[in-house]
Structure formats: C-alpha cells, structure tokens
Design a protein that fits this description.
heterodimer; B: Methylamine Dehydrogenase, Chain H; 4-stranded antiparallel β-sheet; about 50% strand; initiation factor (chain A)
C-alpha cells in the first residue's frame, strides 16, 4: 500500500523512481524533517506531570516555637489534629529544631499515606486556630517551589491575540443559493454542491476514510460529525472542511446533536462477555464548541431502553431526547417507570428527581416547546385504561390527559411547529381478535387543548403511514390494504369550519407505502419503496393534483433538500445494482443521476431557520413574480453558457475523432493494394464506395404493345 | 420499431453474424445447431447440423460461400453455406471459443479454451480453396498466450499482419500473425478491469470496440494498430455484447446482470437493454428493450439500417430502424 502510494506520487511529479539514489537524498534536520504534523494533538498534548513523590507531604506553618520540654506535647497535639484526616506515616511528622537555640522553627512536615489525604488535610486545616496568635498556614510540599518563585511584582497576564474563527456559515452565502449534500460510497466521503442548473454536482470536499462508520450533519448544518475509533470529530469551516473539535469517546457508535447544536451526545455499547448479561452502555454529553465533556452516563443497556429485549442490541437511539426549541435546555431519558429530565445548566435532574410514571412506554417532546407527551398502555388486563398525557417541563404539571380504552398500541406524531399532536390509536375490536385504528388530535396552542377524534371513512383500514405537513395544518395518511392502498389528506383548519378536522380528498389505489412532505409543505411525494420498486408520485396538495409520476427503480431512500426545491432519491448498497442517487425538481422532473458503487448514505446539509417572519414569507410568495424575474434571467444566462461550453467540448471531441478517421482513411488507402492482393486481386474497396453512390431508381414507363379495334355489337 | 422475433434456438444465443451483403444472418446458440436466417424478414433459411456442443462463434467468408463455426465439442467446422454440408472439421483438445476469417479468407484464427491440462491457445489455420485439399494442420499456434485464462475473442488485424485477442485477464494483446510474437498489450490502468466478453471490429479494420464485465462495464473503442484507448462508454451493467454501426457514429452495447442472478429480481432490474451511444460524444442516445434475459450477442446489418440482438432467453430480435433513428440529434 505504502509503496503504491509512493509510486503514484512519484508518477504524479514526473519522477522516475528507478533513477533516484536513496543515499543522495538529504533530509532536513529535525525529527520531523521540518514538516509539521497535521495532527495537532501531537503537539498540544499536556506535558506529562512527573510525580515528585512528595505529593503526600504537607507543610504546616505558624506553629508555636517551642523548646525541647514542650516539643513532645506539641507533637501529640499535631498528631491528634492530623490523624483526623488520614493516616500519618510512621515517623511521618517531622519538626526540625534549630541546633543553635534548641527551639523549633515554628513549622513541621507531615507525611500522609496518600496524596488525597494530604490534600484533604491541607484544605481542612489551613487557617486552623491553635490559639489566638497561632493560625495554621498549610501548604502542599510540592507547591513550595512554585510559591517561592512568585515574582514580587505583579505582571499583567499576556492577552492572547484574537484569532478570528472561520465563518462556519459560509456555505449559506453561496451566490447561486445552492445546497450541499454529503454522500458516502466505498471508502470515500464527499461533500457536494447540488447544482441543478448544470445538472450535476460540484465537489466541495472529498476524503477517503473520513469516517469509520457514518457521518451526520448537525441540525442547523454547521458541523459535519465523523465517527472514529477514538471518538467523534466535527468538521466545518469556510472553504474546506477542517476539524473544529474532537470528542474523545472510545469506540463511539452513535451520535446525536441537541436541536440547537450546543451539545453532542455520544453513545458506546459493549457486548457483554457473558451473553446473558446486558451490554454495557456509556453515553457522554459534550459541549460542541469547547469540546468539554459535560456529563457521562454509564450503566447496563437495560437502564437505557424500555420494552423489547434491549439486552444484546443495546439501547434504542437516541436514548436522550432533547426538548424542542433552539435553547437546548432540557433532555429526557425514558426508562422503566420513570422519565428522567435533565437540564443543561447543571446537567442534573430537574428538582433532583425523575418523574415517576408507572409503565410508561413511550415519550416525545414537542418540537418547539418543553412539553412531553407520554403514553402509558393498558394495565391489569384492561381495568386501568391506557393514557396519553402532556406534561409541561420544568413545572412537571400535567397539561392534559386522555384515557383510552381497549387500546393495543399508540403512536405519537408531533407537527413540526408544535401546534398539533396526532396520536394514532390501535384499538381492539369487540372480539379482541383484530384491531382498527383512529386518531386523537390535540390542538396544543388552543385554550385547554381540545382533543378531537378522527376515524377513517372505513374504520377497518390499516394505517400504513402518517405524516404532518411541515409548518402546516394538513396531514396525509396512507391507509387500506396492500398492494394498492388509498392516500387521504386532512386539514386541521378550513375557512368554513374553523376548528374542525376535515378531509380534503382521497386518492384511490396508489402504489405507495411512504410519505415525504416537502419541508415547506404544499408538495408531497407518495413513494412506493421496497416491494413497490421505487414508484414516485409528486403531488400538489393545494391543488390536489398529481404533478408527475415516475420511478426510481429500487429506490431505498428519499430526501428533500432543506429548501424544498429538490429531492434526492437514492439506491444504497442494500441492492447490488444501480447504486447511486437521482436528483429531481420538486415537481418530479428528473434533473440528473449519479451512479456510485457501494453507495451508503446521502444527507442534505440542513439550513438554519429562516430569519424572515411568516408574514414576510407570505408576502414574498404573493409577489413571487417580481422576485423571480431576476433569477429567471440568471437561469437563461446559465443555460446559454452551458450550451456554449457543451458545444465547445463537442467540437473538440468531433475534431479529435476526425483526426482519427483521417488517419485511418489514409492508412486504408495505403494498404489498398496489399488488401487486393490478399483477396486475389478482387477490387473490393471501390465496390464498397460504389455501393454508396449507387442509387436505386424506379422508372415507370408505359409502352403501347398492341392496339386492336373491336366492334361492339348492339 | 417493431422487432421481428426469431424463435429457432432452444438455448441461449451466443453469437450473431451478418454476411457482407447483409441479406443473411447466422446465429449461434448453446444448442448445437447454427442457424441461417433471412436478414430482412427473419424467416429461417436452414441449419447446420453436426456439432455436438454449444456453438460459441462463427464467421462467414466474404463471398458468403463458407461458414466457420467454433464449438464446445472441441471442433471448429467449415460449412458450405448453400448446402449446409460440413466441409471439414478441425479437431482440438479443448473447446473452440472464437473464429475469424482473415482478409481474403485464406486464413482463420481459432481460439481454444483452457481445458484439463491444456492452456488456452490461438491457432491459425490455412483455409484451402478447394475443400478437398483442406488439412487440419495449424500454420501458427500461440500456446498459453494468457495462461490458464480464457480468451474470449481473437480477430485479425489490418492486412492479416496481426491478431488481436482479449479475454478473462482483461488485457488486450496484439500478436504478430507471422511469428506469434507479442507486439503490444494494454495497460491494466487504462483498459478493462474485468473479463473482456466481446470485441467488434469496424468495417475498415481501423478500430474496434470491446465489452467487459468490469464494474463500470464499459465498452472501449481502440485503435487497432496502436492499441490506443479512444473512447469509453459506461453502461452500468456487465456488458456481454458490443457492435459498431457501419452507417452512423453509433455504438450499441448489450448485457445485463449475470444470468445466474436473473431469476432473483424483477426483470426490470436486469436492464436487458441494447443501449445506443453516440460514438464520438460517448453519450447515451437510447435503448431497445425486449429481452427478458441478458443480451449475449449483437450485430449490425452491414447497411446499418437494421440490427439484431440475441439473448440468454433464446430469442433473436431483429430490428429495422424507423426513419426517426436516422435523424437523432443530441
């Protein structure tokens, strides 16, 4: 491998490796040959502290100076005092005596068994009053050197020159307002611009073996986190991706950011040596910017998971769920019968205790507020009803709760702006043999949080997928029987009936099993992934009309870009063939395809929330024509330029080809005689040329062969 | 473009060959009988009976009088095209994989597979004018040219001076047809990464195209004299067959996923499409679907107005181009 690298590098630089005499090379002096290692850790590691061996000795000052007579008495007193803090070593107390006067100097050394004891004793007895005039002054022996060297005059500490950090938001200022995406294929991880105008991607940064498992953007897109054996690292910056910080966590497996990207949670689980034991889990919470570990949690996987076998697989991720909003104030963990809510100010539990909820199995934060929704299933064989409750944090007040009967399962879906909560409830039929589904819809922002019950037109329909319109008031449901279920759209708000949920429409018999709303709402992709082979239907919910129906064969993943302008569909390496991704416009027009073998991951770089108020956004949408004119002109320019480039390229290709053809033709001519000889003199080449010249002409002509007259008798 | 479906073979197709006039189409398949078809309406004209194994390859003489076929029964046979009679049988000790008549039809190059203790070999045979005088001796034998690796195709270079071969080791080689000396071979870096499955010469022997199973599955266009790589066409699936249009600057590439994996997925996953590319710009123009197994053989009619494809599914599909085809602009 290494020699291969060297060979390729040499070839790149145009060096003939075989001509190089290794002995003639003089390397620059120094251990690193004058080349700074790019692993700054090598240089910035703390200098190792060498243990002087005196760490467990303290010096007690301001003792009374005593003569020989009283020496022993003082010694007993001191021993008495210091034995409280630890074990003084044998002959560990030493009080020197001035040989001239026979008096003590007024200080002594005490050696403890351990440095901790010494430290403790120092802290506890510094300032100890033996009597009025003798107040102890205690120091660690090790500190003496340092304290003696303190300069007499105070020196102002040097202020380090301010080093401006990189602009981590630079990608947002792209002139063409493009979005970035990261892909992983084979050993390579690449960050690319999506350039729909050029119908291609433009590389930003590429690295082989950038990560050892996967990569993830932070929720606002500022950082890209990579996972390594030693821990996680975040990357970002203005132009290229530089490493901004590292977080040490051996064998980290999973990471999660807080929504305001202030904190990074890393997870590591270790398979137990005894398969019956639960695996060991270690979770650390880091401050993203300083890299400081704020808190770590250790325990067996059981403590971090609920329901299911848990044990071997480890905890379900994310273990810690962050409260909504961007202030990253609270995070919560669900465990058996409790919900533990931590606050980030102290990284301790709120009010120092968890919330006790018997048998709780699921919890969700509101995406915007510090409200937890939780679900408790039925207990006691149906005697105690199931319950869905909303709990306000940090007050832990239950805002609303609803009891539900004969429930088999519940799923909670928050709308992205925290206005609504939909709870899909699967209930048993009377016979308890089958289940049917309905929805409980909570209107969080209205007074008293009214709850509405929604049942599908056909109660027995199975619900295959559910999705809220982001920032909107609508939701879509796929229901019915495979392989051709129906898709229905509902709205929580209509002009006619203000506060009632109403159905907008149903699309019958669609090949879909997943819903992907555009991040700006209005558009949705009804996708048939997996066994539907990647059917895609781009649907406009405002107009309730299909914009396009297409297919990305075998597509496994679909992801909208953060602006809702483009969609990427990908076939990842779960399939062998046709790995790669396709980018579509929001209305289902195919823009371009990129094929990559061993394609693992595609993630768009998220954008932070817009600074525009909803009113202004609406205003822009209204006057879109005025704003878009500028961009249309740009589009026009680009397309002209593109074709110009293209033409240039094509002309070059054509010319090159012509040169080949000319060469071949002349050679062909030269060899004509020889070829004729090989063919026994058959003049064949001309014949071929003649073929082309030959034209089949159809000539019609009439010829009078014979004329006879016959008398027709009447 | 409505294809003519030619059902005559019972096993997967292996090779297709038009005669020079473009009125006859010869097909070889894993069943033992090469078949002759009318190239315009796809009617079957006759068969050549005598082989006792899969027939891998064939070539027809310039005057359409002789046919040579190479078969897994360890023979290559000469046939009278008109009567269907076997004129001569060259016996080998391993299957004959590829056959090619030289310019003037006086020589034929035959490759044989590695088999038992025999390595692969390239044989040059002299073809007698009168079949009575035909002898089985080789003019030249290149033993072990690629070791134990199979040679999938060997053809004559310009003026019969060279022989170009390609096979499982993904390297193309040019041999001196007189001495058997290796003149040139392709660089691993530049060329194919996996087995070369097919090779098709241009009409004037100036360049040729090869198809390969390598991951990027490309067909490469090579200069026949210098072995320079000129173009690469990436297809996304393994390539089994390639052909050059004699009329327009088009190449056609066929293939699809491995035959052993076909039944495991939807037929659309296989991409059993004959894909057309612009020869110069290397851009895909379009595709012709229809086969429900990988495409194993492709051939253009010498007039460039029709082409036929043979599939693992046992069908030959004969396509006469619509007039639109001749006006494709990209």
């Amino acid at each position: 491998m290494a020699t291969l690298d060297i060979d390729s590098r040499a070839a790149q630089l145009g060096i003939d490796w075989s001509q190089v005499h290794l002995d003639s090379i003089h390397l620059p002096p120094g251990e690193n040959f004058g080349i700074e290692s790019d692993d700054e850790g090598v240089y910035h590691d703390d200098q190792l502290e060498f243990d002087t061996g005196f760490g467990n000795i303290i010096v007690v000052d301001n003792l009374p100076t005593v003569a020989k007579v009283k020496f022993e008495k003082l010694e007993t007193v001191l021993k008495k005092i210091y034995n409280q803090f630890g074990v003084i070593k044998e002959n560990g107390l030493c009080m020197p005596v001035d040989p001239n006067t026979g008096l003590t100097f007024g200080y002594c050394f005490i050696e403890f068994n351990t440095p901790q004891e010494a430290q403790n004793a120092k802290e506890k007895t510094h300032g100890y009053k033996l009597d009025k005039s003798h107040i102890f002054s205690v120091n660690m022996f090790d500190d003496f050197d340092r304290l003696m060297n303190v300069k007499e005059e105070w020196e102002a500490p040097q202020t380090k020159p301010y080093v401006p950090g990189e602009n981590l938001q630079k990608w947002l200022t792209d002139e063409k307002a493009r979005d970035q995406l990261v892909i992983r294929s084979g050993p390579d991880t690449e960050v690319l611009w999506n350039d729909p105008r050029q119908k291609n991607t433009e590389p930003v940064h590429k690295r082989s073996y950038w990560t050892e498992s996967y990569v993830q953007w932070s929720p606002l897109g500022t950082y890209l986190v990579t996972l390594h054996k030693q821990g996680a690292a975040v990357w970002g910056g203005a132009d290229t991706f530089t490493r901004l910080m590292r977080y040490q966590h051996n064998m980290v497996k999973l990471v999660d950011f807080s929504p305001g990207e202030k904190y990074l949670v890393t997870y590591h689980s270790q398979e137990p040596s005894n398969p019956r034991d639960a695996s060991k889990v270690e979770i650390k919470v880091f401050d993203v910017r300083t890299g400081r570990m704020m808190r770590d949690f250790k325990g067996s996987a059981d403590e971090f998971s609920i329901g299911g076998p848990g044990g071997v697989a480890g905890a379900s991720w994310p273990v810690f769920r962050w409260a909504g909003g961007k202030d990253d104030k609270y995070f919560a963990k669900l465990s058996k019968n409790t919900i533990s809510v931590y606050e980030t100010e102290t990284f301790g539990l709120i009010d120092k205790k968890s919330i006790k909820v018997d048998n709780v199995v699921d919890m969700c934060w509101s995406p915007t507020d510090s409200i937890i929704s939780l679900f408790v299933p039925e207990q006691g064989g149906g005697n105690q009803p199931a319950k869905v409750a909303l709990v306000q944090i940090p007050s832990k007040v239950e805002l609303r709760q609803k009891n539900l009967f004969s429930v088999s399962d519940c799923k909670m879906y928050w709308q992205s702006s925290g206005e609504y909560l939909a709870v899909k409830v699967d209930r048993y039929t009377k016979t308890k043999k089958s289940t049917y589904s309905g929805f409980e819809l909570f209107r969080i922002k209205e007074r008293d949080i009214p709850i509405e019950v929604l049942e599908l037109d056909n109660k027995n329909d199975k619900i295959i997928a559910f999705a809220w319109e982001p920032k909107g008031h609508r939701f879509a449901v796929i229901h019915g029987d495979q392989p051709r279920p129906d898709v229905s759209f509902y709205t929580m708000k209509t002009t006619q009936h203000g506060g009632r949920v109403t159905k907008l429409g149903t699309l019958k018999a669609k090949q879909a099993n997943a819903l992907f709303w555009s991040p700006t709402g209005k558009y949705i992709i009804l996708a048939g992934l997996k066994n539907f082979n990647g059917q895609l239907e781009f649907f406009n919910v405002d107009e309730l009309e299909t914009m396009a129906t297409t297919e990305h064969f075998m597509a496994t993943d679909i992801e909208w870009d953060p602006t809702g302008r483009y969609v990427a569909t990908a076939v990842t390496s779960v399939h062998e063939m046709e790995n790669g991704f396709t980018v579509w416009s929001f209305n289902g027009k195919l823009l371009y395809r990129v094929l990559k073998d061993h394609f693992f991951q595609l993630t768009w770089r998220p954008r932070p929330a817009s600074f525009l108020s909803p009113e202004r956004e609406e205003n822009i949408a209204k006057n879109l024509k005025r704003y878009s004119r500028k961009y249309e002109a740009e589009d026009q320019d680009v397309s002209l330029q593109l074709s110009e480039q293209d033409r240039e390229k094509r002309r070059a290709l054509k010319e090159e080809w012509e040169r080949w053809v000319m060469q071949w033709k002349s050679l062909y001519e030269e060899e004509k005689l020889e070829r004729q000889n090989l063919r026994d003199g058959e003049i064949s080449d001309e014949e071929e040329d003649d073929d082309e010249a030959k034209e089949v002409k159809e000539v019609e002509f009439e010829d009078v062969i014979d004329v006879t007259e016959e008398v027709v008798e009447e | 473009m409505r294809p003519i479906l030619m059902k005559g073979h019972e096993r997967p197709l292996t090779f297709l060959r038009y005669n020079r006039d473009g009125d006859m189409l010869f097909s070889c398949a894993k069943d033992h009988t090469p078949t002759l078809w009318y190239a315009d309406n796809g009617e079957r004209h006759g068969t050549y009976r005598g082989h006792n194994g899969a027939v891998w390859c064939c070539d027809v003489s310039r005057d359409s009088s002789r046919l040579i076929t190479g078969s897994a029964d360890q023979t290559a046979k000469l046939w009278d095209v008109k009567t269907g009679q076997q004129l001569f049988s060259f016996k080998f000790s391993s299957p004959a994989r590829s056959v090619d008549f030289s310019v003037g039809d006086k020589l034929a190059v035959i490759t044989t597979d590695p088999f038992m203790e025999h390595t692969s070999a390239i044989h040059v045979k002299r073809i007698a004018d009168d079949p009575q005088d035909q002898v089985g001796d080789s003019v030249l034998v290149l033993e072990n040219p690629e070791g134990r690796k199979r040679i999938n195709r060997a053809v004559w270079g310009p003026l019969n001076q060279t022989i170009v071969s390609g096979g499982e080791d993904a390297v193309l080689r040019i041999w001196d047809a007189e001495t058997g000396k290796l003149l040139k071979e392709t660089d691993k870096e530049v060329g194919h990464k996996q087995t070369i499955t097919s090779l098709c010469k241009s009409a004037d022997d100036s360049h040729f195209i090869t198809g390969s199973l390598d991951k990027t599955a490309k067909a490469c266009l090579w200069d026949m004299r210098t072995l320079t790589l000129i173009k690469t066409y990436t297809s996304g699936v393994p390539v089994n067959a390639v052909s050059l249009s004699p009329l327009l600057d088009h190449v056609v590439i066929g293939g699809g996923q491995d035959a052993s994996a076909v039944t495991t997925t939807d037929h659309r996953a296989g991409k059993f499409e004959a894909k057309f590319y612009d020869k110069i710009l290397q851009e895909e123009i379009g595709g012709v679907k229809g086969h429900f197994g990988p495409i194993n053989a492709l051939a253009f009619n010498p007039d460039g107005r029709s082409f036929s494809s043979g599939g693992e599914d046992g069908y030959v599909r004969l396509h006469h181009f619509d007039s639109d085809y001749f006006n494709i602009k990209i």
